[in-house]
C-alpha cells in the first residue's frame, strides 16, 4: 500500500495518518476502532464478496435498489449541481430538478414582510429541514433574519398550538410537506391551521395564497385546495428520509438564502463523488459501515451511540435514527429470507450533555456500545469566551474517546474501566452548509453500505404501516360518546378505549 494514501505500509485504516482519510472537507479517524490489519483484510474481502463497489454504482446510476417498490433511490440527483444527465425510465431527471431549484430561488427573492413560516410534515418530511435550520442558526449570513421558522410534526396539538400562539396570521406562510400527501399527522395539522386562519378572519384567497405544498402526490395537493403555482413537486424515487435535498429543504433556502441551500447540496455532492470514486479502503462511508459491522459482530452490540460535540447538531441523532432504523431495522433480506442481525438501535444527544446521562453505561455497562463522536474544529458562537468554551468542549470529546479506548485499571471493580470500547471521530472544519451537507451524505451512504452488508433493501419501510391502520378504528371509537363495538378490538385495547371514553 502506498504511503501517499496515508495508510502507511499496512492496509489498516486505523493506522491512517490523521487527516488522510478525508472527503468533502470531513476527516474520519478510526484509530480507536481497534481493528487490526488482518481483520480489515477480512472486512475488505467481505465488501468484495458482496460486490459493494458494484452495488454503489448501481445506487448512483439509478439501478432499482428499492427492490420491493421496484424503484431507484436517486436522491444524489437532487444535489447534482452540474446537471450532468441522470436517466430514469428513458428520461433525464435533471431538467425537472433544475426547474424546482429555479422556483425555490424565485420564492426566496419574492417574499417580503413574512413574519412566520410554518413547516408541517413528519418523519423524513421534518427531520432534515428541522435539523439544518437549527444547525445553521449560528451562521452569520442569514438573509431573512426577521422571519420566524416553526416546525410542527406531531399530531399532538400541543406542538402546533405553541406555534399558533406566537405566529401572526396575516403574515404567515405555511408549507405542507408530505411525499404521499396523506400522512395522518400532517393532514390534520394542515386542516387545523386552515381553521386558525379562518378564525383570524383571513379571506379564502388570503388563505390560498398562504398555503404551499411540497409533495410527490401533486394531484392530492390540488384536491386539498393548494393552488397549482404553490405546489413544489418531488418524485417517487426520492425516499422520505433522503428528501431534505429536494423542495422539502425549502425552509433552509427561505431562511438562509438559496446560495446557502446550494452550499448544502454542494457538500453532499462532493461526498457523493468521493463515494463513487474512492477505493473501499479509503472510502469514508464504506469504512464507517465496515467498522460498525465488525464491532456489531465482535461484541454482539445491539446499539450504537452518536454524540455530536456541537450543540447546533442536537437534532442530528433524531435524523439519524430515522435514516438508520427505518432503512435497516428489518428481519427479512432482499430475497425474503429471515435474518438475525440488522440495524442496531441508534441513540445519542449533544456532548457534553450526553456525558451526564448515558455515558456511565458506555464506560462501565456490560455491553460494548460503539460510539460515533462528531466534532467541529471552529467555535460556533460569537461570545467573547467562545474559544474558551470550545476548547473545553473539544477536550471533553477527545477525553471521552480516550477513556473508552484505554479504560483504567483499579483493584476496586466498581472503579475500573474495561477500555477497548470502539469509537470513531468525524471532524468538520466548521459547521456551515457545505460541511453539514457532506456529513448528512456521509451517513446516508453509510446506511446504504450497511444495508448492503446485511443484504437488506434500505429503501422501504413496511413495518410502519400496521400501527397506522390500527389507529383508524380506535380513533373512530374515541370520537364521540356513542358506545363502541368492543368485539372489534382485542380485550386490552377495548378496555383502554373504554377507560378513555368515560
Ligand atoms: O414513518 C413512515 C413515513 O412513511 C416515513 O418514511 C416518511 O418520511 C414519513 O412517514 C412521512 O411521510 P410523508 O412525507 O408521505 O408524509
Task: Output the keywords.
alpha/beta, Rossmann fold, binds 6-O-phosphono-beta-D-fructofuranose, 502 residues, 6-stranded mixed sheet, 5-stranded parallel sheet
Number of domains: 3
Shape: globular
Distance, first to last CA: 73 Å
- Alpha-beta content class: alpha/beta
Q: Give the CATH superfamily of the largest domain.
A: Glucose-6-phosphate isomerase like protein, domain 1
Q: What is the succession of H and E elements?
A: EEHHEEHEHEHEHHEHEHHHEHEHEHEHHH
- Counting DSSP H or I runs of 4 or more residues, the number of helices is 17
Order of strands, widest sheet: 1-2-13-12-10-11
Mean pLDDT score, rounded? 95
Q: Report the biggest beta sheet as strand number plus sense, adding barrel if it closes.
A: 6 strands, mixed
Q: List unreliable stretches of 5+ residues.
A: 1-5
How many DSSP-defined strands? 13
Q: In words, what does this structure look like?
A:
- The chain has 502 residues and is of the alpha/beta class.
- It folds into 3 domains: 9-69 and 264-454, Glucose-6-phosphate isomerase like protein, domain 1 (Rossmann fold), CATH 3.40.50; 112-257, Rossmann fold (3-Layer(aba) Sandwich), CATH 3.40.50.10490; 462-501.
- Helix content is 43%, strand content 11%.
- The protein has helices at 37-49, 52-60, 94-110, 127-135, 157-166, 184-199, 204-210, 218-224, 250-256, 258-277, 284-299, 316-328, 359-364, 386-406, 433-454, 465-478, 491-501, and strands at 22-23, 26-29, 87-88, 91-92, 116-120, 148-152, 172-177, 211-215, 231-233, 303-309, 345-348, 371-376, 423-428.
- Strands 1-2-13-12-10-11 form a 6-stranded mixed beta sheet, with helices on both faces. Strands 6-5-7-8-9 form a 5-stranded parallel beta sheet. It has a two-stranded antiparallel ribbon with strand order 3-4.
- α14 links the parallel β12 and β13.
- α3 crosses α9 (250-256) and α9 crosses α10 (258-277).
- It is globular.
- Mean pLDDT is 95; it is low at 1-5.
- Bound molecules: 6-O-phosphono-beta-D-fructofuranose (F6P).
Amino acid at each position: 500500500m502506498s504511503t501517499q494514501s496515508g495508510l502507511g505500509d499496512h492496509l489498516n485504516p486505523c493506522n491512517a495518518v490523521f487527516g488522510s482519510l478525508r472527503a468533502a472537507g470531513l476527516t474520519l479517524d478510526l484509530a480507536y476502532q481497534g481493528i487490526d490489519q488482518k481483520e480489515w483484510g477480512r472486512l475488505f474481502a467481505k465488501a468484495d464478496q458482496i460486490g459493494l463497489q458494484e452495488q454503489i454504482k448501481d445506487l448512483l446510476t439509478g439501478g432499482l435498489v428499492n427492490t420491493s417498490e421496484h424503484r431507484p433511490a436517486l436522491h444524489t440527483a437532487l444535489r447534482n449541481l452540474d446537471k450532468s444527465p441522470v436517466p430514469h425510465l428513458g428520461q433525464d431527471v435533471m431538467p425537472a430538478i433544475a426547474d424546482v431549484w429555479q422556483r425555490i430561488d424565485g420564492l426566496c427573492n419574492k417574499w417580503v414582510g413574512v413574519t412566520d413560516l410554518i413547516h408541517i410534515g413528519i418523519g423524513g418530511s421534518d427531520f432534515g429541514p428541522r435539523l439544518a435550520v437549527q444547525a445553521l442558526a449560528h451562521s452569520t449570513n442569514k438573509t431573512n433574519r426577521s422571519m420566524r421558522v416553526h416546525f410542527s410534526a406531531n399530531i399532538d396539538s400541543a406542538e402546533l398550538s405553541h406555534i399558533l400562539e406566537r405566529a401572526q396570521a396575516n403574515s404567515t406562510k405555511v408549507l405542507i410537506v408530505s411525499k404521499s400527501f396523506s400522512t395522518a399527522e400532517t393532514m390534520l395539522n394542515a386542516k387545523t391551521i386552515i381553521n386558525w386562519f379562518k378564525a383570524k378572519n383571513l379571506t379564502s384567497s388570503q388563505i390560498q395564497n398562504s398555503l404551499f405544498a411540497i409533495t410527490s402526490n401533486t394531484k392530492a395537493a390540488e384536491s386539498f385546495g393548494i393552488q397549482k403555482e404553490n405546489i413544489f413537486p418531488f418524485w417517487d424515487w426520492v425516499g422520505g428520509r433522503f428528501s431534505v435535498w429536494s423542495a422539502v429543504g425549502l425552509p433552509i433556502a427561505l431562511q438562509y438564502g438559496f446560495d446557502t441551500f446550494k452550499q448544502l447540496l454542494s457538500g453532499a455532492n462532493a461526498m457523493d463523488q468521493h463515494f463513487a470514486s474512492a477505493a473501499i479502503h479509503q472510502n469514508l462511508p464504506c469504512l464507517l459501515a465496515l467498522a460498525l459491522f465488525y464491532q456489531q459482530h465482535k461484541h454482539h452490540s445491539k446499539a450504537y451511540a452518536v454524540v455530536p460535540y456541537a450543540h447546533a447538531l442536537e437534532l442530528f441523532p433524531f435524523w439519524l435514527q430515522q435514516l438508520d432504523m427505518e432503512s435497516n431495522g428489518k428481519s427479512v433480506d432482499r430475497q425474503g429470507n429471515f435474518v438475525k442481525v440488522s440495524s442496531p438501535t441508534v441513540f445519542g444527544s449533544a456532548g457534553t450533555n450526553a456525558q451526564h446521562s448515558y455515558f456511565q453505561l458506555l464506560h462501565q455497562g456490560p455491553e460494548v456500545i460503539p460510539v460515533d463522536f462528531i466534532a467541529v474544529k471552529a467555535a460556533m458562537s460569537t461570545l467573547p469566551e467562545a474559544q474558551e468554551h470550545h476548547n473545553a468542549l473539544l477536550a471533553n470529546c477527545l477525553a471521552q474517546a480516550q477513556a473508552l479506548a484505554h479504560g483504567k485499571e483499579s483493584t476496586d471493580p466498581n472503579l475500573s474501566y474495561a477500555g477497548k470500547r470502539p469509537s470513531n471521530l468525524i471532524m468538520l472544519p466548521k459547521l456551515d452548509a457545505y460541511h453539514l451537507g457532506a456529513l448528512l451524505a456521509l451517513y446516508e451512504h453509510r446506511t446504504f453500505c450497511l444495508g448492503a452488508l446485511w443484504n437488506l433493501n434500505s429503501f422501504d419501510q413496511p413495518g410502519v404501516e400496521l400501527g397506522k391502520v390500527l389507529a383508524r378504528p380506535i380513533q373512530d371509537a374515541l370520537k364521540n360518546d356513542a358506545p363502541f363495538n368492543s368485539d372489534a378490538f382485542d380485550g386490552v385495547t377495548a378496555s383502554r378505549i373504554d377507560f378513555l371514553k368515560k
